[in-house]
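#lab-general

N.A. 3:47 PM
ok so I finally got the sequence cleaned up, no stray characters, all 91 residues accounted for. can someone with queue access submit it? mine expired

B.Y. 3:52 PM
send it over

N.A. 3:53 PM
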Amino acid sequence: MKTLIASLCRWIAIALSFASACYWYKASKVKVTEQDKELGIDFSYTDTANKDRLIWVLSTAKKQTELNAIAAKFIGWAVFFQVVALILDPF
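B.Y. 4:20 PM
back already:
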C-alpha cells in the first residue's frame, strides 16, 4: 500500500511540476497591452516586433509576478509530494 501511495505522490509531483513550468513559461511571454489603473504611473513602449502594440512595463511586471507566484506554489506542492513519496518508499 505504501508503494502505491508513493507512486501516486510521484505522479502528482510530476503533474504539478509540469503545471509550474507552464506558468513560468507563460510569465516569461506575457505582455500587457492595457494599463493597470491600480499602479497609477506606468511606462510604455511600442512593440515594433509585434504589430506596433503599446506595452505597459509595470503592468507587465505585475502580471509576471502574479504568474510566477502561482508557479512557485505549484512547485512547492510538487516538492511536498516528492518528500512524501521518499518517506513512504525510500529508493
